Amino acid sequence: MLAFSLDKLRGYLSSIYKADVKIGYVSELGGKRRPRKRLKGFGYGVPYVIDLVVGGERKRVILETMRPEGFGHDYFSDRAQVLLWQHSAYNKLPRHVRSVDVGALTADGNLKSVGDCAEFFIVTEMVDGRPYFRDLDRIKEQRRLIQLDRDRCRALSDYIVRVHGVKREAPWLYTRRIRDLLGHGECIMGLIDSYPPGLEYISEKEFCDIEKRCVEWRWRLKRRAHRCSQVHGDYHPWNVLFRRGTDFTILDRSRGEWGEPADDTSCMSINYLFYSLQAYGDLRGPFEALFSLFWKNYLNKTRDEEMLTVIQPYYAWRGLVIASPVWYPNLTVDVRVKLFHFIKNVLETERFDLKEVNSYCKG
Predict the structure, then answer these.
(1) Which alpha helices (DSSP H) does 222-353 contain, by range?
(2) Which of 169, 221, 351, 359 is deepest in the core (most CB within 10 A)?
(3) Range(s) of the domain holding residue 143
């Protein structure tokens, strides 16, 4: 709940109309008028009627927010997306109610206009560090591990154990994350749509079969809301900056705060397979050691054996990413074929077996 004063509301409206505004009353739509100085407990999703006079002309406008929780409106950014679109689209359609502005309520009770924005941006701190994939590049070239490689792998596993240790009872967020895994433009169907036609290593029918299997997995997973955890959402070696030793910073959290922990474990661990396929043609040597270390440490500390029964569509998604000719144009056909074997085989596996990764990569 937020609250703002009538003075701040008057100031905001005056900036929109570029003239002095006088407020007659404020009331919930269909409710009592509120001429008081402060609107206590401004409710999300509750429309407010504002009676005002500007330039001698009386007007009435509606100030409304959206309710969170469910229907894709869970996060602030979701609601901003809808409201920004409404403001841009309402006035383009004949006979549609007109939008006056789209704005934001700030934490200190101010009202801020964003109606004339053409694009949004973010500013973050600059941090030093070397991307973790550089370590994997070195290992692929030298084909050996140093102690620091083991220490960093364990640190990455420990970090995501800690992240996933924060739980939340929010079945609508868990269900949404499973739904987004299939339908989001950055996830399974979006990745498949980004593949060009006529590829020698995957057909449209095979893509269709992958999507069908993933729909079946959605129905298996969507009711497991007891697993709802804090997540990163894009936990891969390009989003980790290491400094000295095991000191690191994480970048680019994605697609919401809550979801299925398998999202993150699949995202990091599949890269050990990815690099090993490029180096050896299967999972072996130093990359097999890192894959095993990451997983053994994670499972020992979380006791989350159930993850091995839900990770399959997440591994399929991450497989689609690293097999993509858009994201990785220089891979050999052999590596791409093995990745698609991996995708299709894990989707047919009831329980992911950490010791059978190489068998999953075979046709």
Answers:
(1) 262-279, 285-302, 312-322, 333-347
(2) 221
(3) 130-360
